[in-house]
Amino acid sequence: MDIVYIETSIVSHATAWPSSDPATSVLQIQAKRWLDEQATNRARLSRYNDRVWIRAIATLTALAVFAGTVVTAAGPHAGNESAPRLDVDLPAAARLHGLVVVWLLLVSTTYIIVLRRRVVEDPGVQDSAHALTRPMRLFGLAVAAQGAIGYIQYFNSTPALLVWFHILGACVVWIAVVRLVLAEHDSRGAAVEVDRVLQPS
Ligand code: HEM
User: Which residue, of 30, 79, 101, 166, is most buried by count of CB atoms within 10 Å of its CB?
Assistant: First the structure.
């Protein structure tokens, strides 16, 4: 509520007729500068399509987790020994699960390279690129480590001990993707809020 109040105040200062009162006039200039910066940030962010990349990454992660639970439900570690199993081909399900992860790794690596190039080629966007680079790298690391554990499991008939690490890794990967989504949301931050104030629904 307070944020909306402050933003409404900034927008009304920036768009009002110039005041003859010096103190108000300084505030108006500051508010206008701030609004211009937000507009530039918005233009940059939409040009770079961060939201599309991160949504694709989050969707692939959700698919990987879903496919993983199918693998477990069809395999030897679901419930006790007499528990009914999902009637799907275990190696095929594991390969499909692995394939989703391979795509996830490809998309993530490409996006890490895209972010890196942005920082190098366009120093003006360092802030937004830096805001996403760190959570994206951590996510990439988590997926790579998890993928390694997964393939070790796959080629060694899924030893029970590694399943613990795989589930722990799945939690870490999920936490990392949520942090990434939040970082993208934050990098838009005030710009989105200002849009809302300028164009109330
Ligand atoms: C981002 C990477 C990955 C994530 C988030 C992930 C997630 C999961 C999840 C959530 C499960 C189910 C755990 C349960 O419900 O008990 C699972 C199981 C499994 N995953 Fe993955 N996984 C990843 C990578 C891989 C890779 C690359 C492979 C290699 C083929 C793999 C092989 C397996 C196997 C064999 C199981 C069944 C383990 C068992 O219960 O016996 N995973 N995975």
Answer: 101
Closest ligand 1 atom to residue 105 Cα is 1
How does pLDDT run across 104-124, given as a tens digit for each residue? 999 999 999 999 988 887 766
Contact status, residue 120 vs residue 129, Cβ threshold 8 Å: no
Residue 174 alpha carbon, nearest atom of ligand 1 = 5
Structural domains in the chain, sorted by start: 49-187 (1.20.120)
Longest dimension (CA), the chain: 84
- Closest listed residue to residue 187, CA positions, set 131, 138, 137, 133: 131
Mean pLDDT taken over the chain: 85
Answer for the pair 27, 183: CB distance below 8 angstroms, yes or no.
no
Quote the percentage of the chain above a pLDDT of 70.
Answer: 84
| Ligand 1 midpoint to CA 111 (Å) | 23
Using the mean position of ligand 1's atoms as its centre, give its distance from the Cα of residue 33 in Å. 50
